[in-house]
Amino acid sequence: MIQVNSVACASPVKCVAIGGYLDSAHQWHGLLLVKTGSSWKPLQAPAPSDVGTGDFGGVNLYAVACSPPSNCVAVGEYADSAGYLYGTILTQAGPAWTAIRAPLPVETGYYNPRADLITIACPGRSNCVAGGRYDDAADNSHFVLLTGSGTSWTPVEMPVPAGANPEGDRAIVALACLASTCHGVGEYTLPSYYGNGLLLTGFGSSWSALATPSTAVSNRPNLGVEFNAISCPSSVSCVMGGDILNSARQQKGILLARTRNTWRQISLPSPSLYLTNGMINNIACESQSFCLATYSYTDIRYAGALSLQSALFAGDPSQSSLTLVAGPALRQALKSSVRVDDIACVIRASCVAIGQYKDLSGSWHGLLLSRSGSQWHSTEIMLPRGARDPGFDSLTCASSRMCVAVGTYTDSSGN
């Protein structure tokens, strides 16, 4: 079994994809796929010295970021021989990779910290930011940020917004950095046990945390807001997305735009009159005046997998709304369920979205949506012979002519 979770490129000829794989002895290892020139080389990822073996050990990598000319950093988690989970950071220096246990803001002692790193951003070669979560010795969940490079990383304990449930989960899930400013999104639990979004701003050891600003969410009162994606085309302009659960317990996608210190909600036309369980999954901003967002939802007119749908929105986030550019029309053209997994834009006239669609016989196929000028075109992605049920986890474009997508599929033997 092989799992590829994320990909990043320092240049069109230097890329790294990361994930994990299960060997014949049922040991889980971290996986590095390194691109140099036009060739890819698989490597077993190094692990911290206390990594366990067998059923209780293993490494899995979740996110990777690269900065020019060729330095990449990957983050994830590993288990020791007792099955306790710790965060791990892997740093590339030339052809060599080094793995360390991620330091935490407080010592957890012998208690299982259940720590893992979920996201990483590297605005420069010597300054990266990683985010995730951990549990302390009292079983309380905490945000964690780590700043640094190489084998030198400093943990930052993030403040918790007033009113957070002390027994609830917390995590930093996405980061976007430019030069010396980073923004991020996370989530924490309210006393009602519903989730609420967290906004992060800072760099180095100086960070501030803000609960979802109520003035930015027009359809309050609501039960909870969660964010899972952010894109920042400049240090004063960001767009973040996720979902909102209103007082009628209807889950819908939400998109907020930040201009300097002001956040406001962007209106999204509904992709369907029969929409439920809506969510913004991914955001890609080519500039301050053009962003793309993917919206997944359930269409209650259809049963099973056919009910799962996706739509694409595009436009200027400084305006009051974005435009639906692909959705029901795409479903009608393909006569099927459509899922969009990730998006990327290098220039406004050259954007890519990747996902899957289901044909009339019930088989899933890879789907590529490409933007040329103002038009979108759909193409089936050719998979290896015997492959079925593809799923894509990450997409990146190093130039307008070179993009890389990674994911998984099931082969003819069911692996």
Structure description:
It is a single chain. With 415 residues, the chain is mostly beta strands. Helices cover 2% and strands 63% of the residues. Strand 25 and strand 26 form a beta hairpin. The mean pLDDT is 85.
Q: What is the global morphology?
A: globular
| Percentage of residues assigned to helices | under 10%
- Strands of the biggest beta sheet: in what spatial order? 1-2-3-4
Largest sheet: 4 strands, antiparallel
Helical run tally:
1
Overall average residue pLDDT: 85
What percent strand?
over 45%
Q: Helix- and strand-based class?
A: mainly beta
* Amino-to-carboxy terminus distance: 6 Å
Number of strands: 30
Taking pLDDT < 50 over at least 5 consecutive residues as the criterion, the unreliable ranges are none
**Mind telling me the C-alpha Rg?**
21 Å
List keywords for this structure.
four-stranded antiparallel beta sheet; 415 residues; mainly beta
Concise overview:
Helix content is 2%, strand content 63%. The mean pLDDT is 85.
Q: How do the helices and strands line up, and which of them pair or pack?
A:
Layout: E1 2-11, E2 14-22, E3 28-36, E4 39-44, E5 58-67, E6 71-79, E7 85-93, E8 96-101, E9 116-124, E10 127-135, E11 141-149, E12 152-156, E13 170-178, E14 181-189, E15 195-203, E16 206-211, E17 222-234, E18 237-246, E19 251-259, E20 262-265, E21 275-287, E22 290-299, E23 308-315, E24 323-326, H1 328-334, E25 338-347, E26 350-358, E27 364-372, E28 375-381, E29 388-399, E30 402-410
